[in-house]
Amino acid sequence: MLHYKKYEISPTSPWVTFVHGAGGSSSTWFKQIREFRKEHNILLVDLRGHGKSARGLWEKDDTFSDVASEVVDVLDKLSIAETHVIGMSLGTIVAQTMADNYPERVKSLILGGAIIRFDIRTKFLMLVARTTKKFVPYMLLYKIFAYILMPRKAHEESRLAFVNQAKLMSQKEFIKWFSLTKLINPYLTRLQISTTAIPTLFLMGEEDYLFTPPIREVVRRNKEFEFITIKNSGHVCNIDQPEKFNQLSIEYIAKIEKKRAVLQVE
Known about the structure:
Shape: globular
Distance between the termini: 39 Å
Number of helices: 11
Helix content: 40-55%
């Protein structure tokens, strides 16, 4: 069972589950907790090998589906029937996998710094990482990736937060997580098709130059998806611009809750 922390304000308040990115932990969301817990029940999880969750859970041929099922196991333990899911970076793939495999459990997706396709630059970086991962210290690779994704002075807090959290990982865990990126583009393409019935909001930093262009393309093709850019923000927009991230997320959840209430009345 994954390590988790919950804040439950009432049985009738909507649940919001936060899923961090690779190398992060539930502490990634420290700037969201105070605002969200005013009107929402909150579930924070540490994905396998991260934060306070157990190491060594990997089996041969494990996939994002296995990672997502562990989050759903926590929902089951806490008797959470449905939840809004907010993901960040690689955590957005876990969130979308939850929506794909367990659509009845996911009310909506809010995907920050979303990864829906690796372009040629990203694929090259991943190839370098996979080639060197067994003999180059993982923290060196992680710091390089952090600087590539979050290069500006304004991104320093986000960059340092993820680098410091990644120190809790091990080389073996890092290698296992990187192995999930093999043949990732076909999988991500399928996810965009299979989850169109789930209300989805993409929140992207205006300076997230690697991952924003594919989002624009997907949203143009799928009118069910919504997309908002956050100014003065990079890849980890929930830390770079927490007030705006919180406002947009909470407004979106309120809109979805209102729509569901109307449908139930009808």
